[in-house]
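User: Predict structure, ligand glutamine.
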Amino acid sequence: MPKYVFITGGVLSGLGKGVVTASTGLLLKSMGYSVTAIKIDPYVNVDAGTMNPYMHGEIFVTEDGGETDLDIGHYERFLGIDLTKKHNITTGRIFYSVITKERRGEYLGKCVQIIPHVTDEIKKSIKEIVRESGSDIGLVEIGGTVGDIESLPFLEAIRQMRIEEGVENTLYIHVALSPVISTGEQKTKPVQHSVNELRRIGIQPDIIIVRSSRELEEENRAKIALYANLPPQAVFSDPDVDTIYRVPLLLHGRGYTRYLANKLKLEYREPDLSRWKEFVDRFAHANKVIKIAMIGKYTRIRDSYLSIVEALKHSGAWNNVRIELEWFEATDIENRRLHLEDILYYDGAVILPGFGRRGSEGKIEAIRILREHDKPVLGICFGMELMVVEFARNVIGLTRANSSELDPNTPYPVVDLIPSQRGIREFGGTMRLGSYPIRVIKNTEAWRIYGREIVYERHRHRYVINPSYIDLLESNGLKISGWSLEENYPEFIEIENYKSIYFGTQAHPEFKSRPLEPSPVYMYFVKKILETKKVL
Ligand code: GLN
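Assistant: Predicted complex:
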């Protein structure tokens, strides 16, 4: 019988609840238990795929093509496992299946209600996912903040699960903020209020994790414990640290793992965190620095490109280098609010993924100057598509070349809709999504990156390099170094005889990068930058 750990959040969102969940999972896993994780997002969208990164941060993509919340990315990175689209439950998804059942007549004769029909559906989904994964423990994080109207049915469902599954098989962890105000005082009232709100709903937390800009003061721990009806040992301090990857080490150092084991009636086994610790040490003590220009259009919200940032951190740590990122807003390049030449001061650039016309000409300008100066460039998906457009325009001379996504009337659609995408009218979940095999061409950068003929990476796109331009591109020096196995779409591009590295990928290798298993693409990119720096 699996055990369930529920994580709720109080005071405000964006506290790092996902990181606490992922860290808890890592610690349980490091004791030798098998763990899976579920993210509940109480919004009505069926999945995150139709949301703007401005609203939601990055859309994470799973192996099976789920477009999920970015916390699924945290879980995969900390736990080192692949999750599926099912692991992200939303109000939209729950209602969708309840309403489908109602139409099919499965509730015939009944009045269908939030309690019990919707809450039953929630419990059923949670249990099914954990059971199917065969895990000893299922972590369930409830997105948003306690007190939100949307999350009420989910909180009610997890409240009921304690009765059904038993006290020793369920654990409630509440993560809340203790702000430090301008006088320097650390305040506990918001934590108390959020715990009260949770208890009003019927959930007594077993553990409270207090986020704060600094260590929780002893006096405050006692105060929170008292008001929350808990012993002080159940209240853990989780201050801001240099990297999110330190959080599990920090919590473990405070007796959190033992406390979890005790509460869940699990045999305590000393977790082996040595590799994890090595990664964090390398990250913190890297003795070299490189600076990378990040060129995109959602640059004001850094979470929009979270997996790319994390992939760079992973590769940086294992290459002994601290990577400093500078964000370039592509629309600012277009309006000349930004000096294009500034990009050349950086050791390399990532052309970020994206959609739509806004900012695309700025990105193309940036690609041109980087290419002309033989700067290290890595283009991800849309970034790679624009590398092809730039090459077609400025090397081959097809002046108005474009992607038909950006200019449907371009005379040279060097990037065009995937034929199977024609006729698709619905937006939700209809892109080419998830993991697909790629055939790597020998004697190329791609081969040096992967060293294997067939590799799998995750995708999220509707457009590809137009097959009718491939001969022209290749005869001018833009090599296609990877092909999709099923349809022969170009997957990787590079420029032959480039002085540093110029690599573009239709796929998103960042989604598979993990601290203990960094993405080969990002590893190679960082290595190449280091080599180039030495030469120049
Ligand atoms: N908009 C482009 C496409 O659909 C690129 C998508 C992306 O960068 N993920 O092909």
